[in-house]
Design a protein that fits this description.
Layout (H helix, E strand, L loop, with lengths): L2 E3 L2 E6 L1 H7 L8 E3 L7 H7 L4 H12 L5 H11 L12 E6 L2 E5 L9 H5 L2 H11 L5 E7 L3 H10 L5 E8 L5 H8 L6 E7 L2 H12 L2 H9 L2 E4 L6 H20 L9 E6 L4 H12 L3 E8 L4 H8 L1 E3 L20 H8 L4 H14 L1 E3 L2 H10 E5 L2 H15 L5 H17 L5 E5 L7 H9 L7 H12 L5 H4 L11 E3 L3 H9 L2
The structure holds pyridoxal-5'-phosphate.
């Protein structure tokens, strides 16, 4: 299996090269040259395996340059009870008749990003070895909260890597700040920036592309790589849990082998729902892929009209990980839907960069509405949904997941579709304790963050994740705070070069 770039189909690299490079040199994203298939018999057989083996089985179809031993080294290290609080890793919980929650948040940072960021470091170091890059991999991350912590936990003490995370001093929640400041591991660094998220991101980008710094790293046997969601190494692990959930539903007798399901995904950067699209096209029987957005509903409009227009107001919501106006993984979907037409992709994404808007062709519009449904809801509806499902089903869900539940309820009412449905549950309710508690109790809480967690534990009957329970007593290790223009020196000093 080789990988092409969405902006140049002639580029052809191995998966090890695609993963170490992260993004193609001309700015395109790597996609596998074909979508491998999985038969229903294979899916059924997966039901008898543990999660790490299911993942390995799927990866062998995509990472054909990896040996079996290399793949198992990655999966066994990433998907074990050492880092996940449930043996099934991706847990299915029955919400109401024919509706299932796929809980993807039992990892070390309580959000679904762990599903990919627990394994990416192993993919990266293995890939680097395979292509004889005998270098230490240096990961720089700019974060608005969740990705930084998940990346830190993933790369913590992984041999041959070093990670440095920058966050905006005033731009993350107190809990997120504490999670990062108390990070453990010998190869990690965390630093606050006197600026906003864009300053962090611009600073990191400038360092990534600075020739002088790159040379300095090379002289010291180091290289930069990226842990963000444009890396194929972050997307492929997400395909696994959709296949795995189908195998579990068959095994549990909830569906018959071959029955179609709907999949609902609370969406921001379009990575998670694109993985579901891949699972479908590999052979998982899927009726509709339902794309749920918050009030930043650029994707709802796009799927319903074929016009992508980011020229609109940006809102900060109670589901912050979906507050996004440019969904980068859409580029991969459109590449597939245009029959891998790199010229068209360059044209559309050029228009997006220049004017913030593009409109797809009539046949792509038709494909979009055939495969996807889209809807959105605002913060008030999100809050009401958390309250309702808590009252009706004694189930506590986080704000992002609630957006998906609400959009699905609307879909079901409008279409009368009774197909069994899997909803991707992307974060632990504890991760957004303040909003969830307010929704459950029907009023704002006066408690501090830790007491809110305790209160939520009483109300929800969900055990507090150990990562959050320990937080109060952990010593802070990282208190550096720097000016925007001091990032370059800080990185070099941190690397000791
Ligand atoms: C990142 C994130 C999302 C959005 O996922 P995408 O792959 O970016 O679409 C949804 N919910 C939570 C909790 C997240 O952290």
């Amino acid at each position: 299996m080789f990988y092409n770039s969405t902006r140049n189909s002639d580029i052809k690299v191995s998966s090890a090269e695609a993963i170490t490079q992260g993004i193609s040199a001309e700015g395109g994203l790597f996609v596998p040259e074909s979508i491998p298939s999985i038969t229903l018999d294979e899916v059924k057989a997966l039901g008898e395996m543990n999660y790490a083996d299911r993942a390995a089985y799927v990866f062998k179809k995509f990472l054909t340059d990896f040996t079996d031993a290399e793949i198992h080294y990655c999966t066994d290290n990433a998907y074990s009870v050492k880092s996940f609080e449930t043996e099934s890793i991706a847990e299915i919980s029955h919400l109401f008749d024919g509706t299932y929650m796929l809980e993807l948040w039992h990892g070390p940072t309580c959000a679904f990003k762990d599903m990919a960021l627990q394994i990416l470091p192993y993919f990266l170091t293995t890939s680097a070895k395979k292509i004889n890059l005998d270098k230490k991999i240096v990961i720089l991350v700019a974060t608005s909260g969740d990705t930084g912590k998940a990346a830190l936990e993933g790369f913590k003490d992984v041999e041959g890597t070093q990670i440095l995370v920058f966050y905006p001093e005033q731009g993350v929640s107190p809990m997120q700040k504490r999670q990062m400041k108390t990070q453990e591991g010998e190869n990690v660094g965390v630093c606050a920036l006197k600026g906003n998220f864009d300053d962090c991101q611009n600073g990191v980008k400038a360092i990534f592309t600075n020739e002088e710094i790159k040379e300095k790293l090379a002289e010291n046997s180091m290289m930069f790589s990226s842990a963000n969601s444009i890396n194929w190494g972050r997307l492929v692990p997400q395909i696994v849990y959709y296949i795995s959930s189908y195998a579990d539903l068959v095994k549990g007798g909830e569906i018959q082998l071959g029955d179609k399901i709907n999949i609902v995904v609370p969406t921001g950067n379009f990575g998670n729902i694109l993985a579901a699209y891949y699972a479908k096209h590999m052979g998982i029987p899927v009726n509709k892929l339902i794309c749920a957005s918050n009030i930043n509903n650029v994707l709802t409009d796009f799927i319903n009209t074929g016009v992508y227009d980011r020229n609109r107001q940006f809102y900060a919501t109670t589901s912050p990980s979906m507050d996004i106006l440019i969904s980068s993984n859409l580029e991969r979907l459109l590449y597939l839907m245009t029959g891998r037409n790199d010229e068209t992709i360059k044209d559309w994404f050029g228009q997006l960069a220049a004017n913030g808007r593009y409109e797809v062709s009539a046949d792509v519009k038709a494909k979009l509405t055939e495969e996807f449904c889209a809807g959105f809801c605002d913060d008030e509806q999100t809050k009401n949904t958390i309250h309702e499902i808590y009252e009706k089903y004694s189930y506590t869900c986080d704000t992002h997941t609630a957006v998906a539940v609400k959009v699905y309820e609307d879909y079901k009412r409008e279409t009368g579709d009774t197909t069994k449905t899997v909803i991707a549950s992307t974060a632990s309710p504890y991760k957004f304790s303040a909003s969830v508690l307010e929704a459950v109790e029907g009023g704002k809480s006066e408690l501090d963050e830790y007491d809110m967690v305790a209160k939520l534990a009483e109300l929800s009957n969900i055990p507090v994740p150990s990562a959050l329970a320990d937080l109060r007593n952990k010593p802070e290790r990282f208190n550096d705070s720097i000016e925007k223009d001091a990032m370059k020196e800080y990185v070099l000093k941190n690397l000791g070069i």
